[in-house]
Every structure is written in structure tokens, then in C-alpha cells.
Q: What sequence folds into this?
């Protein structure tokens, strides 16, 4: 525990008292009743029961890996608790059977949510709900020290007013579909084109389902009304010369993603090819100019078949050029083709006719060039059932990292804080199917130039990664929007509030009721992830009447961006003073340390968990004399 000052509040009518102290890195709480709650400890892996401000017992002790941002992180009680005595925990598993901080001592899927049964004195494991990516070992495309880090694990879990379990996991350093990179962290000439790491990806299989909010039934299954359940099947194809029959030594690469709707009437797809002249232009030396691109069907892997669909415009068998869009890939080579297969195309066949071949994995995609007219690169179209199942669990994606989300007690809407790297902390209203834009953007899309400038010129300039450097950030809002990986039914939305320079928030929570005053009823509170800005700030936001935007009193915040001038720093008071500029009217409290959980207690007061202070605080209204 750090030496901490006593928390203080801006409102003179409010007071703060310590409910319990001398805890070891508490992360979150769940109330069983008035003056009776569970509290989690990040590094000990212990769930403790606190009654009337005293730790009564340890009801569960898990062997956790707490390196970096891992550990025992989140708790949620079943909506029908205690009649249904289920307690859900988000934690990072140790492989040593003891608590550890060694980053390598966790399984690949070491971040997990489990359901336990409460019998009044102890918690007993009932079933695993989901296992998620935790391990980040070095691999060929990124043999760097930071590849083993353990941050961006998220860990917040809550049941919404709909009775569904919502959980957040950060990007865990991955760079794939859920981070708006269709081909993974591709760089020109990179042999890892179309992958994320040595475990696969970039499609969100079990090892790459990160940077998302998941919405689950209480048993871990996907609700039928999740935003992407209309995607019936997901297929991918990796295109290389070695897959041609006969094989060739082309260095070109391709990657394709296919989405078949649940009704099986439409198959949309995106294909990116690198290393080919994608214009089809006639040049003095035509070389590998693109000649045609097709889907071939009724062909098991390693065999050839006839053309079933052409999709690259005239004269390539497409009868409606308006269904085909070509945009240049960020590197300046290759391109992206978007099309829709609900038309009768090529060889007078239809999607319905070819579905048996596609579903059986007996179709392939082929790019033909003047240099290799029989086919230069080819890839079998195959489904990974993990990807289809995981997309059905996704509520929102394109998210970097967060330590807090909560549900508005009035509207039921979900609000999320997002941590930027160096630029643009966000507060997001998360609607079903939201694509938050990361890694293509943080902050408002219209400020993409500021995002790129800060990330490329200040504070190290690497987006905490070496595989997709910030020089790749788009140069215009339109370019960034065009690069986003939009699942069928997805939508992008700007944050409802942001700070220009990262201010590192953590836990957030709504005040539900008038316990600390009617003026705070339904308002949102945001705590700090670092203890050196105002000693650990508490921000306060009210929402507009429609509960969809933050309300502001400071005219400088009418654009919903606090244009601060620097990031906070542990040893730079000037930077800290610059970091709070334009946030003065939002300040609610100081000296709360690292705040990992905020919520309304059964008595109507506001409770704040401070990880760094090892304490839980209660904010209450000063009684009238």
C-alpha cells in the first residue's frame, strides 16, 4: 500500500470515511447486504468477506498470475442472487498452483471467467464460463521484450438490466479483426501477412478474441439477440502461390474474410492482396498485372475446379459493377474488394447452388495474372467454428483497454471508459454492435490528425507495439473510416467525451438514487488509474435529458473534448497541471489513489475502491445540524 493522503471532496456538503483498510490491492466489491460485501484482492487471489467494516473471512483463494494488469479483477452476482447463489469472477490463472507475477507463468487462455456457488461461508467452483487470451510470448514477427507484457486484460464483469453478463477484455496486445486490422499487423513485405501471431489470427478465434465487450447468458452461451448473431458462418482464406496446383514461388499474399448470413441468402466478403499490381493496367512490362479473380467450387484442397463466381468487375463476370468497391490498401500495394453474392454471377450459377461446396470447404479463391494466367495466388475458403461462435458473443469491439464500465440506472445504457496510449482518453456510450475504431483511431474521428501527431512525435511513439507503428495511422477521417473492419451490422461511433492527452481513468460508476443529494442522482463518476494526477482524481459527469450525452457547464467543453496540454507524470508537476486543463469543472474529489470500482451501496451512498490505498471509502452527505 502506498502512503496515501486522506481523500477529499470538492462539495463541502459531502464527507468521506474509510469503510475498511489494510487490504492488499483491492479491485472490486459486491454487496451481499447492508454493511456486508465481498472484496477481491488483485495479487493474493483472495475473495474476502467484510461485515461492518471488518474482514470476517477469506471465502476463496485462487492461484493467480498478477503480473502487470493481471490478477483477480472482477466480480458479479447473479441477478437472482441469493435465490440463485451464483458468483462470477474474472481472474488470471497461474500455472504454478501458487500466486505469481512472472508473465510467462499463465496459460495461453489464462484470463477466465468462472461461476462459483455461495453456500453462506465459502465459494465453490461450479463451471467455467469462458477462457480468454492472456499469454503474450515473443514470436517471429515481434521478438521484442514488450511481447511478454501482461497488460490490457480488462477484467470488469457486470450483469446488465437485461439479465445478461457483460465482460470487458482489452486488446492484450493483439492486432487483428477486433483491432480493425483485417490482415493482422501487416507491413509491406511482412511474411506474417494474414496472421496476428504464432497462434494464428487475425480472425477472432479463441486465442484472439480480445479488445471486446462480450454479452453472455448466465451459462456462458451467446444470447440469440446479440448484435452479430445474424452472421451464420464466418470463413477465411489465406492466399499464397504455394497453394496453387501446381505450386509456384510467388511472393504475393492474400487474405479473405467471408460472412454468410443466417438465412444463407447472402455472402459478403473482403479480400486484400499484397504484392500484385491491382489495377489491371497495361504497362510496358505487364509483369504480374491482375488478369482475373474468381471463386472456384467443388474442389477439395489440392485439386482444381472450374470458375463459379467472378468478382472484380468487367470483364471478370460481375454483372453489377456497383456491387464492387476497390480501395487502396494502406501500404500503397494491393487493395480491398467488397462485394455481395446475392446475385447470379459467372457461369450462370447462384449462391444457393454453391452453398454445399462452400460449407464443405470445397471452394477456393484464385487471383490470375498475366505472368501466371493459370493462377498466381490461391487460398481454400474454410470455416473456423471458433470464429463464428465468438462473433456471436461480441457486443462491441474495436476497443483498446478499460478498467471500468457501468449501466445507466435510468436508461439501462452501457457506458465505458477507454484508456488511450498517449492521446484521447474516451468515455463511450456503447450501443449494440459498436466498433470503437481502435487501432485506426482514438478520440473523435475528426481529430485523427491530432491523434497521429501525438502518437508519432511524443512519449515514445509506438502505440505500445512494434508490429503496427503509429506512422500507419490514417491521414484523414475518411481514410481511417474506410480501413475499419466492419462486421455485418456493425457501426462506428465517436466517444461522447474525451481528453486530448491520456489522463488514465479506471473504475467508473453511476450514482443510483438521492443518497448524496438529488443533484447527483443518475450522475456518472470516474476514478483514476494513476495516483499522481490530483492524488487520484474523481471526475463527475451529469448526462443530458435523453441520457445519451454528457452534460457540460464549461463552454470550453461544448465540443465534448477536454483540450488538455499534457499527460500526467509521477515526477512532473508542470505536466500534471497541464493535464487537468479544461477538466477543472469536472473535478469531484482528490487523493483517492488508483480507483478500481465505484458503485452505489445498499444504503444509498457512493462507495469507492482504492487499489493503491488498500481501502474502501464511503461518500455520504453531511447530516444537517
A:
Amino acid at each position: 500500500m502506498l502512503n496515501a493522503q486522506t481523500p477529499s471532496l470538492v462539495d463541502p456538503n459531502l464527507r468521506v470515511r474509510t469503510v475498511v483498510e489494510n487490504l492488499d490491492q483491492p479491485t472490486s466489491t459486491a454487496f451481499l447486504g447492508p454493511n456486508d460485501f465481498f472484496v477481491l484482492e488483485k495479487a493474493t487471489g483472495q475473495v474476502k468477506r467484510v461485515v461492518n467494516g471488518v474482514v470476517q473471512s477469506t471465502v476463496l483463494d485462487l492461484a493467480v498470475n498478477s503480473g502487470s494488469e493481471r490478477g483477480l479483477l472482477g466480480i458479479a452476482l447473479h441477478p437472482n442472487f441469493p435465490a440463485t447463489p451464483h458468483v462470477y469472477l474474472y481472474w488470471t490463472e497461474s500455472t504454478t498452483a501458487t500466486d505469481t507475477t512472472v508473465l510467462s507463468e499463465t496459460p495461453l487462455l489464462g484470463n477466465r471467467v468462472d461461476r462459483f456457488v455461495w453456500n453462506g461461508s465459502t465459494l465453490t467452483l461450479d463451471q467455467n464460463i469462458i477462457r480468454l487470451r492472456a499469454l503474450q510470448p515473443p514470436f517471429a514477427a515481434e521478438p521484442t521484450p514488450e511481447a511478454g507484457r501482461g497488460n490490457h486484460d480488462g477484467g470488469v464483469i457486470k450483469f446488465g438490466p437485461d439479465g445478461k453478463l457483460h465482460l470487458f477484455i482489452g486488446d492484450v496486445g493483439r492486432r487483428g479483426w477486433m483491432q480493425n486490422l483485417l490482415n493482422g499487423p501487416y507491413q509491406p513485405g511482412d511474411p506474417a501477412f494474414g496472421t496476428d501471431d504464432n497462434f494464428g489470427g487475425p480472425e477472432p478465434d479463441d486465442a484472439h478474441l480480445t479488445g471486446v465487450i462480450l454479452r453472455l447468458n448466465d451459462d456462458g452461451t451467446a444470447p440469440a439477440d446479440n448484435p452479430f448473431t445474424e452472421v451464420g458462418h464466418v470463413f477465411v482464406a489465406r492466399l499464397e502461390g504455394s497453394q496453387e496446383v501446381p505450386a509456384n514461388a510467388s511472393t504475393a499474399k492474400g487474405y479473405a474474410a467471408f460472412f454468410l448470413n443466417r438465412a444463407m441468402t447472402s455472402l459478403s466478403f473482403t479480400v486484400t492482396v499484397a504484392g500484385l499490381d491491382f489495377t489491371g493496367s497495361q504497362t510496358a512490362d505487364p509483369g504480374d498485372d491482375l488478369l482475373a479473380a474468381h471463386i472456384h467450387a467443388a474442389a477439395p484442397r489440392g485439386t482444381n475446379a472450374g470458375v463459379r463466381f467472378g468478382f472484380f468487375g468487367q470483364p471478370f463476370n460481375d454483372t453489377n459493377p456497383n456491387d464492387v468497391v476497390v480501395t487502396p490498401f494502406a501500404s500503397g500495394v494491393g487493395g480491398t474488394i467488397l462485394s455481395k453474392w446475392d446475385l447470379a454471377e459467372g457461369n450462370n450459377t447462384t449462391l444457393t447452388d454453391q452453398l454445399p461446396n462452400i460449407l464443405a470447404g470445397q471452394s477456393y479463391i484464385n487471383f490470375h495474372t498475366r505472368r501466371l494466367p493459370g493462377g498466381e495466388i490461391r487460398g481454400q475458403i474454410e470455416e473456423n467454428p471458433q470464429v463464428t461462435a465468438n462473433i456471436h458473443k461480441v457486443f462491441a469491439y474495436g476497443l483498446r483497454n478499460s478498467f471500468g464500465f457501468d449501466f445507466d440506472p435510468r436508461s439501462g445504457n452501457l457506458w465505458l471508459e477507454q484508456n488511450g496510449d498517449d492521446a484521447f482518453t474516451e468515455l463511450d456510450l456503447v450501443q449494440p454492435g459498436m466498433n470503437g475504431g481502435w487501432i485506426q483511431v482514438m478520440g473523435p474521428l475528426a481529430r485523427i490528425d491530432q491523434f497521429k501527431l501525438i502518437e508519432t512525435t511524443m512519449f515514445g511513439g509506438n502505440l505500445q507495439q512494434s508490429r503496427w507503428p503509429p506512422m500507419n495511422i490514417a491521414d484523414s477521417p475518411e481514410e481511417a473510416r474506410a480501413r475499419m473492419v466492419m462486421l455485418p451490422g456493425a457501426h462506428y461511433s465517436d466517444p461522447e467525451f474525451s481528453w486530448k492527452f491520456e489522463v488514465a481513468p479506471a473504475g467508473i460508476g453511476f450514482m443510483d438514487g438521492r443518497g448524496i443529494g438529488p443533484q447527483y442522482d443518475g450522475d456518472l463518476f470516474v476514478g483514476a488509474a494513476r495516483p499522481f494526477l490530483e492524488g487520484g482524481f474523481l471526475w463527475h459527469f451529469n448526462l443530458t435529458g435523453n441520457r445519451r450525452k454528457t452534460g457540460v457547464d464549461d463552454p470550453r467543453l461544448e465540443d465534448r473534448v477536454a483540450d488538455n496540454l499534457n499527460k500526467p507524470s509521477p515526477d512532473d508537476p508542470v505536466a500534471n497541471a497541464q493535464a487537468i486543463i479544461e477538466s477543472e469543472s469536472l473535478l469531484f474529489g482528490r487523493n483517492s489513489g488508483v480507483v478500481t470500482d465505484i458503485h452505489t451501496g445498499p444504503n444509498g451512498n457512493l462507495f469507492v475502491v482504492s487499489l493503491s490505498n488498500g481501502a474502501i471509502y464511503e461518500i455520504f452527505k453531511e447530516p444537517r445540524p
Notes: Helices lie at 351-359, 385-393, 448-457, 477-483, 573-579. Confidence is low (pLDDT under 50) at residues 280-286, 313-338, 342-346. Residues 448-457 form the longest helix (10 residues). The two ends are 36 Å apart (CA to CA).
